Amino acid sequence: MSEQRRIPQHVAIIMDGNGRWAELRGLERHQGHAAGVEPVRAALRAAARHGVQVLTLYAFSTENWGRPAPEVDALMELFCQCVVSEAPELVRQGVRVRMIGQRERFSEKVRTALEQIERQTAGGRTLTLVLALNYSSRSEITRAVQRIARRVADKEIRPEEICESTITENLDTAPYPDPDLIIRTSGEQRLSNFLLWQASYAEFWFPEVLWPDFTEETFDQAIEEYARRDRRFGLVTK
Ligand code: IPE
Ligand code: IPE
Ligand code: MG
Questions:
Q1: Is any atom of ligand 1 closer than 6 Å to the C-beta of 172?
Q2: Please, what is the average pLDDT of the chain?
């Protein structure tokens, strides 16, 4: 692999373990989520330092709405607060913030906050931060199928013209390359409805660290681990 190929273009992180981190300290779960903000800053700094172009963070799944209301409310409040507190630094670092997932389900306040951060950071050219919010892969694929079916019904395309790229182009992630590396913290080894289509040839890394304890050094370790992997994409190594 050339030196450049050893750096993943797109890293996606399933930020897991906030609740357990809080419980271990006798704190409330929402305090674990609040402690998960600094590691987001650390991941961003490290990603920019390594020249990663896209960093996707799984912050809230469609299934997470089923959690107790106080926890969901605290997370919504945290998203709104972070938009305000982090904006200047994101702009300074040249980070462009985008989101994947369905924003319609969020309250007006959260939607406005998300639109605001996307607008404020639209000129960012260093790195794209993709926030997966009210995201699940099955919902994303279902919505893509609906869009494609509508185009078929409108006779814009014929069914036999549908190919893999038609699907890719109709996913929320259409503007971004597939993730090269997916990290899930807290030792859990599952995708939990995250980037199922896009992860076809991703490398996986599952550190034991709980998300609030994730640091720039953890990210560096992930990059080192990635560089050791032999990605064959179904071919044979030269
Ligand atoms: C991940 O941490 C953050 C979100 C899902 C929003 P968890 O809240 O899932 O933490 P654990 O898995 O219960 O420890
Ligand atoms: C996945 O974590 C979702 C996010 C990190 C936002 P969960 O903690 O919700 O997933 P499960 O329940 O362990 O599969
Ligand atoms: Mg969890």
A1: no
A2: 97
Per-residue pLDDT at 161: 98
- CATH topology (fold) of 4-226: Undecaprenyl pyrophosphate synthetase (3.40.1180)
| Cβ neighbours, 10 Å, residue 199 | 16
| Joined tokens for residue 145 | 């199928």
Structure tokens at 88: 């200047």
Summarize the confidence of residues 123-152 as an average pLDDT.
Answer: 98
Give dist(CA 165, CA 78) in Å, integer: 36
Alpha helix (H) residue ranges in 16-158: 18-24, 29-34, 37-50, 69-93, 108-120, 137-153
213 in catalytic set? no
* Mean pLDDT for the stretch of residues 101-125: 98
Which atom of ligand 2 has the smallest separation from the CA of 14? 5
203: nearest Cα among 10, 3, 46: 10
The residue extents of the domains of the chain are 4-226
Distance, CA of 207 to CA of 187 (rounded, Å): 6
State the pLDDT at residue 201: 98
On whether the pTM is more than 0.70, the answer is: yes
pLDDT at res. 2: 52
